[in-house]
Amino acid sequence: MKYTFAYSNPEQHFVDVHVETMINGQASVDLHLPTWRPGRYELGNFAKNLRCMRAVDENGNALAFTKTGKSSWKYLTQGVKTLKVSYQYYCAQLDAGACWLDEQQLYINPVHCCLYTKETIDEACELELLLQPGYDVAIALKPNAAAVPCGLWQVRHTFTAVDFHQLVDSPFIASAALLKHSFVHEGGLFHLVFQGPCKPDLQKIENNFKAFISEQKNAMGSFAGAKKNTYEFTFLFQITPYSHYHGVEHLYSTVIALGPSYALNDELYPELLGVSSHEFYHTWNVKATRPVELVPYDYSQENFTRLGFVDEGVTTYYGDLFLIRSGVFNQAEFFKCMNQQLQKHYHNPGRKNLSVADSSYDTWLDGYVPGIPGRKVSIYTEGCLCALMLDILIRQQNSNTKSLDDVMRRLFEEFGQKGKGYSEADYKRIAEETAGIALDDFFRDYVYGTTDYTEALNEALLYVGCQLEAKPALDVCENKLGFKYEKMAGGSVRVTAIASDSPAINGGLALDDELVFINNYKVEGNPSAWVKYAKEDAINLTISRKGQAKNILLKARSETYWGSYTISLLASKSEAQAANYTAWTKQLI
């Protein structure tokens, strides 16, 4: 298969894609476009961005074809030597996993827009880019040769992938304004590539990246995908002038979208470190070492697995833990990351209704949005907390001589390095062998069940000289009445969340209700101030629901809702607890 990308009017966001494949006597050929991309376990249905498909033979004669599915086509190729298919793909989403084309750059995640045949998916692919003079290309694939002029206004760049899987795992940015910085570390060559308005402190970034790269490699034994003692990895950064945060993993590269650009070296810098560490750890966990349901990828349909709590949850945990272990994060920065996960966990009523394993399966059902209230949990958040509890449980059983590090390294060695997928039973078995005890209760309660995490979290944190602190929410509407809200344009207030068994839900308040009056006073953007002013246990609300006015009476109770949850150090720690903390974080307290 040969793929050519070109364009003529970048401001329209359409890239011209040309696909060529040899025909070996087949009367017809079926081509398919992926329906999802690895790293995001929901259907993307990329065919919706495709238009103007044409098909010709080696002589330019038009060939008949028909659509056979939402993302597949059948081409009639009787007597044809070469099938040439062309189409336009709409590149108008600038994040870490999609495609973008404008006057400044061509940015492509090939999984969105490259057709394939199921018969040749494991064969080598050629990638050709016809670009403006002066454009450079950042991609994990090696060039076939030096770029050469092609006509008056184009330069040809060519690359080869060993198969379709490698091709679509190799996003690229082509631009005349790429900022590149490379360094050698731990026997590998690393590239930092920035596109967009930014002034990164490259030496500071290099130093910090070296620290967490070393920590991750030491934990896993060797780089994922290293070949004949050579290793190369590319961090591709899309820096935007507006607020943005997104990262997507690949085996030999990652794309990270961050903004605003002016904050890159300041308040956004911890985010740069956090997402970079997270995505790099993914090279082991989910790129090299994958659930059996993802080996090989089936791009045509959902690849259901209940192991998302390992794929994303363990990675979320380790992405931040490696930063404190390497000294890149201090204790406050690490605790801040863990506190964010705690807050998300305790503020999600779905934790009482669906397990993290079943929520993993259901990413394919309703994607990465919250879904209906209280239905499910996050594979990132609950998976992270399960990883924390399991890590410390293993340490506790083995006096810190073993940990979750050993589990993940064994998965990599026994499955990832051998190209095999692991099952849920494999993960549990290796965790039990590492811990030296049966973990039936742990997996039943916290992975496959909806048992409250609090007791297990407290026990784990106590072992490392910490504690889980719960404090009432500062906002009186959250604390006493049990509802959250957001201020809208014009001063109106909309209800965004309601705690279960709270005065708000018992009083009949509903999501998306607009608060108009509190005790007959107009809200004007500040309901908490009016609730405090009332100093009453009963609050009369006038709300607007779908354009109709409604009066609601809320009666406060002694319970509090939507609290603040944080990890803090114990005021008085034993020597054993201090040693356990150091074994866990490699930092002294």
Level-1 CATH class name of the largest domain: Mainly Alpha
Low-pLDDT segments, ≥5 res:
none
- Largest pleated sheet: 7 strands, mixed
End-to-end C-alpha gap: 58 Å
Mean pLDDT, nearest integer?
96
State the CATH superfamily name of the largest domain: Neutral Protease Domain 2
Q: What is the total tally of β strands?
A: 27
Report the sheet-strand fraction: 25-35%
The percentage helix is 25-40%
Number of helices: 16
Main-sheet strand order equals 4-7-2-1-10-13-12
Helix/sheet category: alpha+beta
CATH fold descriptor of the largest domain: Neutral Protease, domain 2
How many domains is the backbone divided into?
Answer: 4
Question: How would you name the oligomeric state of the polypeptide chains in this document?
Answer: single chain
What's the CATH architecture of the largest domain?
Orthogonal Bundle
SSE layout and pairing:
Layout: E1 2-6, E2 14-22, E3 28-32, E4 50-56, E5 65-69, E6 72-76, E7 82-90, E8 100-101, E9 105-108, E10 125-131, E11 136-139, E12 148-149, E13 155-161, H1 164-168, E14 172-175, E15 179-185, E16 188-195, H2 202-220, E17 232-239, E18 244-249, E19 253-259, H3 269-281, H4 308-325, H5 331-346, H6 356-361, H7 363-366, H8 381-397, H9 404-414, H10 424-435, H11 440-447, H12 454-463, E20 466-471, H13 476-481, E21 483-487, E22 493-498, H14 503-506, E23 514-518, E24 521-522, H15 527-534, E25 538-545, E26 548-555, E27 564-569, H16 575-585
Parallel strand pairs: 1-10, 16-17, 17-19
Antiparallel strand pairs: 1-2, 2-7, 3-6, 4-7, 5-6, 8-9, 9-14, 10-13, 11-14, 12-13, 15-16, 18-19, 20-27, 21-22, 22-23, 23-24, 23-25, 25-26
Helix pairs in contact: 2-3, 3-4, 4-5, 4-8, 5-8, 8-12, 9-10
